[in-house]
Protein: Transporter
Organism: Streptomyces fodineus
Amino acid sequence: MTEVNTPPRTGEAVPQGAPPRIGRYARFVTARPRLSLLVALVLTALAVLAGSGVVDRLGSGGWENPHAESTYATKALEREFPASQPNLLLLVGSGRASVDDPAVAAEARDLAGRLAGERGVTGVGSYWQNRSPALRAGDGHEALIAARITGDDNAMGKTLDRIAPHYRGTHGPVQVKLGGIVAVRHEMQTVIKEDLTRAELIALPITLVLLVMVFGSAVAALLPLGIGIVAILGTNAVLRGLTTFTDVSVFALNLTTALGLGLAIDYALFIVRRYREELSTGADPLTAVGTTLRTAGRTVLFSALTVAVSLAAMMVFPQYFLRSFAYAGIAVVLLAAAAALILLPAALILLGHRVNSLDLRRLLRREGAPKPAEGTAWARAAGLVMRRAPLFALGTTVLLVVLGLPFLGVKFGTADDRQLPSTAESHVVQQHIREGFPGSPGGGLEILAEGSATDTQYASYKQQLAALPEVVRVDGPLVKGDAAYFTVQPKGEAVGDPAQRLVGDIRAVHAPFATKVTGTAAVLVDTKHAIGERLPWAAAFIAVVTLLLVYLLTGSVLIPVQAVVLNALSLTAMFGAVVWVFQDGHLSGPLDFTSSGSIETTLPVLMFCVAFGLSMDYGVFLLSRIKEEYDRTGDHEAAVRHGLQRTGGLITAAAVILAVVMVAIGTSRVTNTKMLGLGIALAVLMDAMVVRSLLVPAIMRLTGRATWWAPAPLRRFHERFGVSEGGEDALRRDAGNGTPSDQEPELATQRGGSRSI
């Protein structure tokens, strides 16, 4: 292994099979360890400054398709008819008096007049202005003032902060509460910020305790945590920079925290574990770091690529809610990998053997008690699974499929105020409107009519709309120049199936002018269409790139297919639980959320991309160790046992730690964030404890040595471009330890070799 540490002299040939590029990299990152850590400290401090205030620049929307018909109509109506698109509602309660009481009416008109004079507010209307039944509660004790706050998400939030204290509360005979889309999103942004701080305070100490339990050494346990903090702070700075050029969702911060801690800990776990393993064989620290980077370091880089690919697939979709998670996810994955591959080796060089200092587990061990052999339980479990491979393969597959069955009844909807706690002011207002006001104000469909038309043509079109099934009434038109708009009130829920069908029926009505339909149901229809149209492309992108990457790692045709199929299968429990718990409302009491009876349309896409990437993360670590052992011995079953023995405990520990982080995120009071955190925690645990521990060894036992087969052209491709954790180094090491040298050509022939990079 000395070739890792001593570069060849100028003109000197590099020994055959040596990995000079990895050796040069190891020498580069360990040449000035103190300088590397000092530079990292300075950059982290700059990232703290650059990322400060990032929450205030993030948006709380982004679920709609910006190129859809409904989006165009919404913007046009905002511009031409602002009163048609109110986003701020003042719920005016009159106590025991009627809203028509003269004193109540006078106070309400005064409030509406003051609101109309506020900077950044337009389109103010109220029940007391036009006596619309839709703006008056059925019991006559509540009515609405509606208005529109102009600008983007940040500008609307600032306007709301400025005016809300002057309207919220008691005014003479009336009590005012604030609701509407602006209030819901602004309150959601505030709650997420508070919940994120609480999640970090929960996750960090628990994670540190778990790391100490895994490593024993308190010094070693602090290293992954430090890498995670660097990744999180760096990603916040990246997101802050991105807000200058594009919209970024506030929800992406949750993913930044979860992946920043989770992946950084995963990568640091494997690198520190391998480094300590090399030290235990008698290697000096520099040699141990070189070997670690050439093996576990290479796998970390490969794993980061697979996770980044899954997250990058969300860039296919037009909604900035999904694209934001791609921005945040890719940034945090790359920063976590970079920190693990640059800063961690420098820290390990400085620590040397002191990485094992402060072994707290010694306090729990009896003096003189022998240390148990590493991974023996996992080796025995792998042997048991492979002896009963058909039973375990069939049983776990059936279990996962059954757990996923509730997803067949999924209903897609939109995110609304019910994402917030039931005590949140905007949630209370919207719930009052849903339950007490006729026709669900704000839940109708708006139709933008563009082009010159006569009163007769407008009247004829209105009659056609009124004749459609599922229509309660049609209001309008309100005409302004060559534009007009109608409001159609559907039967039932604003985003129910009848309302969604009505969107298509309205769009099919012939009119002598151009029409565009918007409203909550229309936005949902367009969002579902955009996701359905692009989902095959995203899935194909993930599948093709994952197949290629896993082939480059293993040189097998079958293993990449197994990896993709088993990864997808591991997510069934997550999707089934999402529907059973969050759509159907089971456990809504213990988990403290309000079920809306549907799942927000973009969330399953997000959860699939994140969970699939994390599953591939663990899959790469397991497969790389199996491949290393198979390259060394040529014994397929022994390689599977060895891979689980070496990585089973570590993958489980990493999964538990990541699940803790995700559960901390899942304590959020916002339902979508709760769903994301708890759902991915379940997916990660199912993948590590069921798929990696049971299904993978069972399937690999059933496929036998055919697992490693590849046709001759692909073998030659892998020989030239493939990578492996052990590769030729493993063969050469084995020869030095007494393996007959004449076995090397046979092994190379069996497996086609691999290229160390």
Q: What stands out?
A: Residues 1-22, 726-757 have pLDDT under 50 and may be disordered. The radius of gyration is 30 Å. Residues 507 and 693 are 52 Å apart (CA to CA).
